[in-house]
Design brief:
The chain has one domain. By secondary structure, it is mainly alpha-helical. The longest helix is centred in the first third of the chain and has 30 residues. Helix 2 crosses helix 4. The protein is flat, with a radius of gyration of 23 Å.
Length: 118
Amino acid sequence: MIYPTMQDLTKGKYNRYELAIATAKGARMITDEYVRQRTEAEAAAGGGKDSDRPAANMIDKKLKDEKAVKISIDKIADGEFVICEEADIAPVEVETEETAEAETETETETETAEADAE
């Protein structure tokens, strides 16, 4: 039997699809953390084989040895990761160069219109 069970993970509030999405997002976060730690460890080791500490020893052992999906499921079961419904999450606006330019153009047009009105 697989532990934790589906009922333990969903707690009767979420369906399997929501659990799969949450697990995948958690696994992506864990993988990103592993990559960040590995990059820092390689930079600290200087890339040479004759450094004091090998880069592999500087990475969290759990991230290095276990699968990201298994870690994500364990964190959901322990309550470290929480499944949120889409309605509970406020949309986050990511400012790109295009949106920044569009806002600047809109502000300029507004200032020009106000100056013409005076």
